[in-house]
């Protein structure tokens, strides 16, 4: 044990002075609420009356509630299909946009542009495009294949695939990050592989994919967390329907908290989400050693 | 590799590289064609948004649909804007986005400077906590926050949407810290020796130097607020206080037969500021995204 030197003390004092706003904000608006929501999850609470402690009843009710499992299943389905497929498409698009061809700048701008449209406007636009009778998608299908397209958002089977396809339209952020990642792949790796006679496909799997894997890990984690929070589409486009087929987890949580005022129940849902996201992130980081390649060996 | 290529006869080498060159050209042509197709798919929905907004009620439901409206109805924009007080919503959203972002970026820059400049005890631990908060979904904390703001009597005001911004945001602090880390330390040491106060060093030296990063952060914050839906939905319940997002969503549910032309016109007005910002500041846009992705 040694005493802090005078300069260490000074640096520490300055650091905490400058970072104080965030530390206070963290306690007030993030750390505190997480703890409080843990407490609420053990109570019956309707905001008008004080919370009543009921132990684990909310959790027991949740696990016996069909709608809870339905909403968790819908969210997982959307995530497990949409996120990996989105990453794959983004990487391919980034590789195309990385080929030195005339108009590259314009192509990049156009591919990114739809990502500027987001939130409610995006949902309304696709609600119109996917309209079963007059939407552009089914009009196109009818003109080309002469069959009536499905009710994209009104058919239980199609609603999640439709929302996944819609999410592919706004992958701009992923593509931009992958393009930056591809810049870091040394060109001589490809040259060497080419001289060794490796096919383009082999080069893709054995050079490109491992070299951008740190980017993939980052996008995978943030993508999954973002996808667990899907709300706007359910709220604006489908109302969670048809027959709860798009009843996303956070939409259910919102309904419980702000429509039915079951704040205790909703807090239990929030805590399950928190623990699940934390565990999943930890798990993915742990597992990443097996497939994420960092320049200059492990870690 | 150099010794290997030396043994190859010159003419063979030329043909080898020659075939590689034609292969490369094929790749380029294919990439170009593929990109043209992709870009068409990307643009088409936006085009349909615009053309629907300019059609008459009858033409909008025409089968097969017309590519170019027979009769261009600019008046749809006026009708859409008049159907609800959209001018008001536009102002609300702008004020919220501008003031929220301004406070958030300013405070975040102070905090980011603190993390970058001072090697205080526990810095790495605190910074790790900051990074991990980026992973916390908003729904996890929204209920206690709501209870807090309701107790304070702040529901149906913009305070719950603005006040938390004044404590900085983890993402922007991270982005700005990355930038501050690239500045030479000697600069700050020299300022200290010259008797410049710590805050003035930040304000007069560090902050002006990181203008590009500030621009990226500000764009990011603005866009996020402009499109945010869940928070305004929870807190704002009187019609005059809505943001564009809330207004658009409720506009749709107002009708039994949705007037898609008016709805698309209103949506277009709502996306105009983000689109303009994107074209005016594309460089900062890309920079902000990339810094966040490549830690």
List keywords for this structure.
heterodimer; A: 299 residues; mainly alpha; MetI-like fold; two-stranded antiparallel ribbon; 14 helices; 2 strands; 71% helix; B: 295 residues; 2 domains; 0% strand; disordered N terminus
Give an overview in words.
- The complex is a heterodimer of chains A (about 300) and B (about 300).
- Chain A is mainly alpha-helical and about 300 residues long.
- Helices cover about 70% and strands about 0% of the residues of chain A.
- A two-stranded antiparallel sheet of chain A has the order 1-2.
- In chain A, strand 1 and strand 2 (about 50-55) form a beta hairpin.
- In chain A, helix 3 (about 65-100) packs parallel to helix 7 (about 160-170), helix 3 crosses helix 13 (about 250-260) and helix 11 runs antiparallel to helix 14.
- The radius of gyration of chain A is 24 Å and the shape is flat.
- The two termini of chain A are about 30 Å apart.
- With about 300 residues, chain B is mainly α.
- Chain B folds into 2 domains: about 1-55; about 75-295, MetI-like fold.
- Chain B is built from 16 helices and no strands.
- In chain B, helix 5 (about 85-115) packs across helix 9 and helix 10 runs antiparallel to helix 11.
- The two termini of chain B are about 35 Å apart.
- Mean pLDDT of chain B is about 85; it is low at about 1-10.
- At the A-B interface, helix 1, helix 3, helix 4, helix 5 and helix 6 of A face helix 2, helix 5, helix 6, helix 7 and helix 12 of B.
